[in-house]
Every structure is written in structure tokens, then in C-alpha cells.
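Before a colleague's protein record goes any further, I have to sign it off. I want your independent view on whether this chain really folds as the C-alpha cells say. The record follows directly below this note.
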Amino acid sequence: MSEYNAPLRDMKFVLQELAGLDQVVQLPGCEEATPDLVDAILEEAGKFAAGVLSPLNVVGDEHGVVLENDVVKTAPGWIAAYKQFVDGGWNALACPTDHGGQGLPRLVSTLVEEMWNSANISFTLCPMLTRGAIEAIELRGSAALKDAYLPKMVSGEWTGTMNLTESQAGSDLAAVRTRAVPQGDGTYKVFGQKIFITYGDHDMTDNVIHLVLGRTPDAPEGVKGISLFVVPKFVLKADGTPGARNDVHCVSVEHKLGIHASPTCVLAFGDHGGAIGYVVGEENRGLEYMFIMMNAARFAVGVEGIGLSERAYQRAREYARDRVQGTELGIKGGGKVPIIRHPDVRRMLLLMKSQTEAMRAVACVVGAATDAARCHPDEAVRKENQAFVDLMIPIVKGWSTENAIDIASLGVQIHGGMGFIEETGAAQYLRDARITAIYEGTTGIQANDLIGRKIAREGGQTIKALIGVMRKVEAELGKQSDAELTAIRKSFAAGLNALEESVNYIVATYASQVQLASVGAVPFLKLFGVVAGGWQMARAALASKKHLDAGTSETAFYKTKITTARFYADHVLSQAMSLSYAVVNGAEATTAIADEQF
């Protein structure tokens, strides 16, 4: 069974040609991310992913986690790997420099995190949640909270969690019942139970810092009455080290379809007198603060989808090269050939490859915009980039994770019957990928957010501006005489027209007939993702053509980029018209059928 191999050449292409690393390094605070440094980071991250994390992936899947004597024990090798992770400074890569982080651009950390997720998603979930908790405390916590918790969280010596979900509430956070009773000394006693808490307990660090949604006694009803609290597993002593065990305990770990080595915990707060907590920011603004974590987590989950897609593709590609079965179509009397010679296997591999490359490019472009929204000296530019990031987060999260499920399933299909056997490893990627379209907001939630908050609320202003940017790329394709680029332009132009038609429908319909608009929300999310991917693949083709025309020693690489973009245009972008039809015309039957007729 082969180990993960980071796709460094494609990653560097995306950085240099599509995401604009040269522009990011000019931003205040990003100057140290020189091309040489970034290359070195990616090289070392690839070695760590392949040499340390990837070999533990199957171990973790088979062993899982165990709850013993009030402690969650991780899989063999996890503690040592996490120590190496922390000692290598990887947890601090994109964290704020004020508290010991390296402050590298989000663009760079996006690709590093893709490697972690490809190699071992169950391991990677731990630092992913920690980074979200860091960001919430950094932006809204008091100076005392920052000083007490951020240095150890940034280093990775302590980990963080996000505690939203309760059994009766699910995704409806207005129904949260966890109580937080002020004690008059600046602390609160927290009572309640949270479910589905990733790395809610483990044995890799000596403290776990929970960020918990709850209600104070006089809080308003609904989402306006939710506050956010820091609740440590161990209350800190005066010298800042972990002291007495807090009244928060893991009462069970879930038995899941996938991500077996990631402990998904049920946490009980306050069963023995109340868990000590500290409010983050102001009372009753917790949901606002939690969305700081949520948006970071949603982007990170999209990167999980990309990582899993890459790994599933690598496994399927190697199997297709090695598995000899059947003769090649159209060649009489030929011998047995590797299945990579069979047309349908090639089609499936290219679906995996092209969509993974498209998702990687989209995520990196959004990562670069995140850096500009945070660091650019011009406020107008910051706002423009933040609007783009807000628009694209549902795409990175929803489109990438739904694709990951399909891509992992294609990987199983390429293996044939062997793909259904656990020993080949293909099935694990499908099992692990399935949760990504559910947690941190299901695809339906992402889609409703996209059409409501991100499009209808502003009359489609941001997405229409983006379509204008995309049309400039289409026009550039039109200047080319190359047959491949002409074919790409044809599909891209049709996709842009389909996207624009759907945007106009949503803007015109949402306010007066929200149910009709919402029926097409998920098809619209997919449509937008497909076209956004086509935008990046078209840019990749144009950049590759430029290198080929200028003369290059990497002719095969750039020709492959163009051919992959052509395949994406023919097989993926071509879906845009049918998706748009479903958005614009697909609501009537859905709303007409009675409940009892299902």
C-alpha cells in the first residue's frame, strides 16, 4: 500500500500562476513568505506528511480511540506524532506573531493543511479546531484570556475545541440550553451537555481549552441570547500552569462511519457543581464570535475535502497503473494491459484529477484574498476582498466536500471489487470524506447561506462583479487560436451564462418566494463551484500556453495542465446548463407534493 506523496509541482504552479504569491508577499506582515521560504516549507511539510502522518492513517482507522478512566486514549503513535508536530512548529505556522505564531499567509497554510488532510485527516482535525479557537480568542477575548491561553494554544502545547451542538438543537443554535451562571468574581459556572465535539478529550496534551456556547440567566430568547465561554479542562493556577480538573468530562465517544482516530465526544459540563468558565467578549454576542471560528473551520473543512480527493486520486492512479486486466480496446491480438489503458478508467481518473486541481486552485485564490482582506493597507481593497471571501466560503466548504465524496467513490470504483475490501485503503477515503459535507454546516446550510446572505441580501452585487472578472478570462481565451483553448472557452462561456441566469433568478425570486428560490440552493452551489473551478482551470490553461509559447523545459507538465483543463471543460463545466435549469425551473414539483405523498 503506497504512502501519500505531496503534489508539490501543482501546488507551486497554483501559488505562482493563479493565487498570486508575489502579490501576497508585498502585504504588510506577509513579507517574510518569500518564494524560497515557501518552497522550503512545502518541501518539509510534504516530508512530514509522507513520513510521519501517512503511515499512521490506517493504524488510526483500525484502532480508533478508547475512553478509559475518564480519559480518551488516542491510537498508537498519535502522542509521538503530535509531539513531533508541535516541536516542528507546524501548529504555529499561520498563527498570530503576538503570541508566538509564525504569521505566515493563509495562502501558504492552505496548501500545508491540504497535505496534512491527505496524509491523515483524523490527526489533522485536532490542530484545525485549535486554530479556530485561537482566532476567536485573538479577535474577541480579553487581554487576560489572551495572555493565559494563546501562547500555549499557538505552540500546540494545548489544544482547542468548538462546542456548539446539543442533542435537542442540532444545527438550530437558537435551541441551545447550556447555562452559564455568573459567580460575581468574573467567572461563570457552566452546566449542560454538548455532542459531536471533535477532540473534546484526548491524551496528547495536558490541557484542552473548550469554547462553549451557553446562556446566562437573564439572556434573551433565541440566538440573541447566546454567549461564548472559555472552559478549560484544567483550571489554571496562578503561575499559568494546569491545576485542578474542571467539571467537564467526556461521558462517551461516538462510533462513526469514518475518521475513527478522531475522538468525537459527548461532553458533560457541571455534573459535579459547575464547570468554571470565562466569557469571551460581551455577553449575548456569542454566536457572532463563534462564527469567527465557524468561517475558519468551514474553509478548513473544504481543504479537508481537497486533501482527501488528492489522496483518493493517488491511490486509484497507482492501482490503475499496476492492475493488469483485459486487452486494450481496438487492438486485436494485443496482450493484457494495465487498466489505466481502458477508456472508462481514464475518464474516472481525469474526473478525480481535474476536479481536485480545480478545487485546490479555488481554495488558494480564496486564501490569498483572506490575506488581502486582513493585511492590505487600503480599506476599500480589504472590504472588496472580504466580500469575495464571504461569498466563496460556502463554495470552498460545500462544493469541495461534496466533490470529495464523489471522487473517493470513483476511487473505489476504479479498484473494482478490491475497492470494497478495506485492505486496499480506497474505502477509508470514502468513509472519511462522508462527514465533511455534514459537519460545520451541511451542504444545505452552506447553500442557503450562499443564496440568502451572500447573494439575495445585496442584490447579487459581489457575485455579479465576480462574473465580470471571469468574463475577462473568457475574453482572453477568445484571443487564442489554439484548439484546446477554444474548446475551453466554449464551455466556460456557456457556464458563465448559466451562472448569470441563475443569479438573476435568485435575486428576483428570493424576497417574494423564498421557498422556490431555496429548492435550487444546493444545485446553485454546485453550479457556482463548477464555474468557479472552470475559471481557475481556464486561467491555468492560459498560463500554461504562455510558458509553452515562451519555451520551457517542462513541456510535458504544461501540456498536461491544458489537457486537464480541456477535460474539465468537456466533462464538468458542461454540467452547468443542466444545473441552471434545475435552479430556475426545478421548484414547482418540489413544493407542490404533499407531505403524505413522500
